[in-house]
Amino acid sequence: MSIVQAEILEPYAQALMSVAQANDATEQIGEDMRSLKALLETSDELKQLLENPFVKNEDKKAILRQIGGEDLQHFTRNFLMLLVDRGRIIFLEGICSQYLNLLRKLNQTVLAEVTSAVELSSEQQQAVGDRVKSMTDARNVEIETRIDPELIGGVIIKVGSQVIDASLRGQLRRIGVRLSSST
Question: What structural domains does the chain harbor?
Fold first, then answer.
């Protein structure tokens, strides 16, 4: 665990989780965290604006209010304002990820990062979820997908430190290794 994670991300995520649990809002705040994380991952402009020390805190708050609108849970909105006031808004993406990790632990859910050559159908996602459940003792599986055309076909499933490479590229690589070791 890095120093930033131990001293900033974890305590803020834990504090938000405590508020969420006390107010029976863990899932709603979880949805807020997913949305904010996705927005930060896709919008470099927003990320740069929040990280810019020359942008006034009031301007950052106004932008966050505008982005969240009425959809954000009021605890999430208050939390964002607190992060701005304390100069911790630059860690928002990491705090979102950490909160989602805590929520998965609470719900006995594992995160499966699935990389495939093409978009997976809902049936294929269900099959991946079932496979991950059988590998772990998780009650639920949350699937995060990525597309990588270089895989040619198949999937790579990552759950924690465990990786299952069922991609065509991986199979070809393994055949190549076997062929080179037998010569």
Answer: 3-105 (1.10.520.20), 109-182 (no CATH)
pLDDT digits (tens, 9 = 90+) for 46-83: 999 999 999 999 999 999 999 888 888 999 999 999 99
Q: Crossing angle of helices 10-22/26-42, nearest 10°?
A: 140
Distance in angstroms (rounded) separating the CA atoms of residues 97 and 91: 10
Phi then psi for 105, rounded to 5 degrees? Answer: -60, -45
As given in the structure block, the two tokens for residue 2 are 């890095």
Helical residues (DSSP H) of the chain, grouped into ranges: 3-4, 10-22, 26-42, 44-51, 57-68, 74-85, 92-106, 122-135, 168-182
